[in-house]
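[job 4471] stage=fold_predict status=RUNNING
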Amino acid sequence: MPKKTPQADESAEPRYEELIDQLETIVDRIESGEIGLEQSIKGYEEGIELIKRARAILDRAQQRIVELNADELDADS
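[job 4471] inference complete, writing structure tokens
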């Protein structure tokens, strides 16, 4: 099985901004009342998944910043 490159992994995962745009669309549809209860619940479930994915992206970014700061502190020592 071929090894995935970082670029392939990044392109498979939507960007943080795209996830937020999708979440905002769901929220707008639910708040507008244009969809029924069942669709609202489904949208809510989709929104929860989008939030989890967005948080994972933020967690990775935060970890990267911590690593960069640690590297910088090590270089200064």
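[job 4471] summary: The chain is about 85% helix and 0% strand.
[job 4471] exit 0
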